[in-house]
Design a protein that fits this description.
single chain; alpha/beta; D-Maltodextrin-Binding Protein, domain 2; five-stranded mixed β-sheet; four-stranded mixed β-sheet; 20 helices; 48% helix; signal; transport; SBP; sn-glycerol-3-phosphate-binding periplasmic protein UgpB; Bact_solute-bd_prot1
Length: 436
C-alpha cells in the first residue's frame, strides 16, 4: 500500500503558498475512554510527529452511543468531524446515511487518495460486517472484538471445577463455586450482544429474517425462538438459585470479576489489557463461549463487536488525503499488533496476527488468540455473519429493558422475548419507511 499523488500535491500546494508549516487538520471523534483513550491519543501523536502535512486531532466524545449521537447532530449543523468511531450496531444507520450522501466510503477514499488499498489484507471475519453488496469496504475496522468466557482459574481450581465448555457445565460449575464461597459465580455484560446475538450465531440461529438484515430492510426479528427463550430462562433460573447475578448493561459487572465475587464472566475479549493491569490476586484466563448441547452439536462462529471508523463528507480533499494516510498508519502490522497485544482487541489484518505469532505473544500470554479462533472457527453462514438492523442502537435498549424484567422476576423469558420482538419490529418498520 503506497500513498501517491494527493498527499504529494497537498504538500506542494502548502509549500507554494508559503505555508509549509501549516498542516491540514483532521478531527477524529472516538469513544475510547481511560487506558484505551490514552492509546488512541498516542496513535494520533505518533502519526502527527511523523507527518509534515497532516495533523489528527483525536477527541473523546463519550461512550459509543454518545459519540454517534454527537456526530449525527454535528453533521446536521454542518460541523461534523472528518472521522467518527461507530460501534457495530450502528452500521445499518451509517449505511443509510451513506445512501443520502453523508458518508465517504473507505474504498472510495483510498482510491481517490491514490492508495493501492488491498482489502484482502484484512481478516475476513472482521471486514465482512462492514462491506456493501459488492463486497466493498465502507468503514475501516479499528477495534474489533468478540465475547469470550473469562474465568478465575484460581477459584475454579479451589472448587475442583474444570473450565466449562457447555452451558450445562457452566451451571454445574457455578453451583460448585457457590458452595465454595464465590458470592456471584456467573455474570456477563452487554447482554444483548453476548446472550442473544452471539448465542444465536454460535448456534447458527438467525436473529431475524433476511439474513439478519443483510439482505433487505424488510427484516423481522425471530429471536423469540425456543432456543433463545430456553437459554434466557435458564439464566433466570440460575439467578433464583443465586448462581447468576446481573451487574449492568455494559461492562458494569467487570468489578465483580476483578474483585473475585464472580468467577465466570462473559464479555468482550478487549478486557484483557485492563485485567492484566488490575488483577493481581488470582490467575485468570479466557476460553471460547459455551455450547448449548440441546441446541447444536458443535459451535458455528462468533460475531464481532467493537467499532469501525467512518468518514463523513463535507471537508476539503487535502484533509481527506490525510484521513487516508492516517488509516494506512493505523493498519500497519506493528500498530495493529501493539493494539491487539495491549488491549485484547482482534488484530484487523492477517499481517498483524502473524507478527504477534512471530513475537511469541500467544506463548507468553496464552488464551489471547481465543477471539481470533472463535471468529474464524467456521465460514460464516447467513445466520452467523453478523447483524445489520436499522435502529438497532435503540432496539438494544428495548432488549435490555425486557431482559432486566426477566432478571428481576417481573416476566418470564417467553413474555420478555415476545415483547422485545414486537417492540423491535415496530422500530424496524420505522427505519424501513424512512430509508426505502
Amino acid at each position: 500500500m503506497k500513498t501517491t499523488s494527493i498527499l504529494t500535491l497537498a504538500a506542494t500546494a502548502l509549500t507554494a503558498t508559503g505555508a509549509a508549516a501549516e498542516k491540514a487538520e483532521v478531527d477524529f471523534w472516538h469513544a475510547m475512554g481511560g487506558q484505551l483513550g490514552e492509546m488512541v491519543d498516542k496513535f494520533a501523536a505518533d502519526y502527527n510527529a511523523g507527518s509534515e502535512t497532516c495533523q489528527v486531532n483525536a477527541v473523546y466524545k463519550g461512550n459509543y452511543t454518545e459519540n454517534m449521537t454527537a456526530a449525527i447532530a454535528a453533521f446536521r449543523a454542518g460541523e461534523q468531524p472528518h472521522v467518527v468511531q461507530v460501534f457495530e450496531v450502528g452500521t445499518a444507520t451509517m449505511m443509510a446515511a451513506g445512501d443520502k450522501g453523508a458518508i465517504y466510503p473507505v474504498y472510495q477514499l483510498m482510491e481517490d487518495a491514490g492508495i493501492n488499498f488491498d482489502q484482502s489484507a484484512y481478516l475476513p471475519a472482521v471486514i465482512s460486517y462492514y462491506t456493501d453488496t459488492e463486497d466493498r469496504l465502507l468503514s475501516l475496522p479499528f477495534n474489533s472484538s468478540t465475547p469470550v468466557l473469562w474465568y478465575n482459574k484460581t477459584a475454579l481450581d479451589e472448587a475442583g471445577v474444570e473450565v466449562p465448555t457447555t452451558w450445562d457445565e457452566v451451571e454445574e460449575a457455578a453451583r460448585k463455586l457457590k458452595e465454595n464461597g464465590v458470592a456471584k459465580p456467573f455474570s456477563f455484560g452487554w447482554q444483548s450482544w453476548t446472550q442473544i446475538e452471539n448465542y444465536s450465531a454460535w448456534h447458527n440461529i438467525e436473529l431475524g429474517s433476511q439474513q439478519n438484515g443483510f439482505a433487505g430492510l424488510d427484516t423481522e426479528f425471530t429471536f423469540n425462538n425456543d432456543a433463545v427463550v430456553g437459554h434466557i430462562q435458564r439464566i433466570a433460573d440460575m439467578g433464583k438459585e443465586g448462581l447468576f447475578a446481573y451487574g449492568g448493561r455494559r461492562g458494569d459487572s467487570r468489578a465483580q470479576f476483578v474483585n473475585g465475587e464472580t468467577a465466570l464472566w462473559i464479555n468482550s475479549s478487549a478486557y484483557y489489557g485492563g485485567f492484566k493491569n488490575d488483577i493481581k490476586d488470582f490467575e485468570f484466563s479466557q476460553t471460547m463461549l459455551p455450547l448449548d448441547t440441546e441446541v447444536a452439536d458443535a459451535p458455528q462462529n462468533g460475531i464481532i463487536g467493537g467499532a469501525t471508523l467512518w468518514v463523513l463528507q463535507g471537508h476539503e480533499q487535502p484533509e481527506y488525503a490525510c484521513v487516508a494516510d492516517f488509516f494506512q498508519f493505523l493498519s500497519q502490522p506493528d500498530t495493529q499488533a501493539f493494539w491487539h497485544q495491549e488491549t485484547g482487541y482482534v488484530p484487523i489484518t492477517t499481517a498483524a496476527y502473524e507478527l504477534s505469532k512471530e513475537q511469541g505473544f500467544y506463548e507468553t500470554d496464552p488464551g489471547t488468540d481465543t477471539a481470533i479462533q472463535q471468529l474464524s472457527l467456521n465460514a460464516p453462514t447467513p445466520a452467523s455473519k453478523g447483524v445489520r438492523f436499522g435502529n438497532f442502537v435503540q432496539i438494544r435498549d428495548i432488549i435490555n429493558e425486557e431482559l432486566e424484567a426477566v432478571w428481576s422476576g417481573q416476566k418470564d423469558a417467553r413474555e420478555a422475548m415476545d415483547a422485545a420482538v414486537e417492540r423491535g419490529n415496530a422500530l424496524l418498520r420505522k427505519f424501513q419507511a424512512a430509508n426505502s
